[in-house]
Amino acid sequence: MNSSENNIINTISNQQKGKIYNILKCHLCSKILYQPITLHCQETFCKPCLKIYTMKTSKQDCPKCHKPAFYQPINNFKLWDLINKLFPDVVKAREEEIKKSTPKLSQIEEIKEEIIKNNWREIINKKTNNNTTSTHLLDNQIFIEQLF
Ligand SMILES: [Zn+2]
Ligand SMILES: [Zn+2]
Question: Which terminal residue of the chain, N or C, has fewer Cβ atoms less than 10 Å from its own Cβ?
Fold first, then answer.
């Protein structure tokens, strides 16, 4: 963000900030977007929220409109920069909160391992049964890898 953009931000009143905050809320946690990720349906979510949603549901769709999210999610850096400038205290508080609630690395590894195992099961089933059911689990792992 350049200095003229910073100047514009300094002129925004608290009341206006409140309105912006409401627009920039995550559909999953109802808080200000944290490390926003935009899916190809143009919906934007917090990266940690999307990660948890994908792991919990094993689905690779948009949590709001449920359109499949086949493509690489995009880190919305411009929006994240803006949120950091507008709401630095909220971002800091959220950061602390996420640090406490995020599963430890070992837990993440366990989940990833489970996903990989399931993928293999899926692939083996597909090969042995000549079953054309979706290989969405494999795609799902790739999707989660991108989020990490
Ligand atoms: Zn969220
Ligand atoms: Zn969507």
Answer: C
C-alpha 59 to ligand 2 mean position (Å): 13
Alpha-carbon distance values, 36 to 33, 78, 81, 92 (Å): 6, 9, 10, 15
Q: Please report which ligand is nearest the Cα atom of 37.
A: 1
Q: Give the start-to-end residue ranges of the domains of the chain.
A: 3-147
Cα 69 to ligand 2 centre (Å)? 8
* Those residues with Cβ within 8 angstroms of residue 115's Cβ, 6 or more apart along the chain or in another chain: 58, 137, 140, 141, 144
1-15, 76-90, 123-137: segment of lowest average pLDDT: 123-137
> What pLDDT digit, counting tens, does each position of 28-76 carry?
999 999 999 999 898 999 998 998 898 888 888 999 999 988 667 788 8
Superfamily of segment(s) 3-147: Zinc/RING finger domain, C3HC4 (zinc finger) (3.30.40.10)
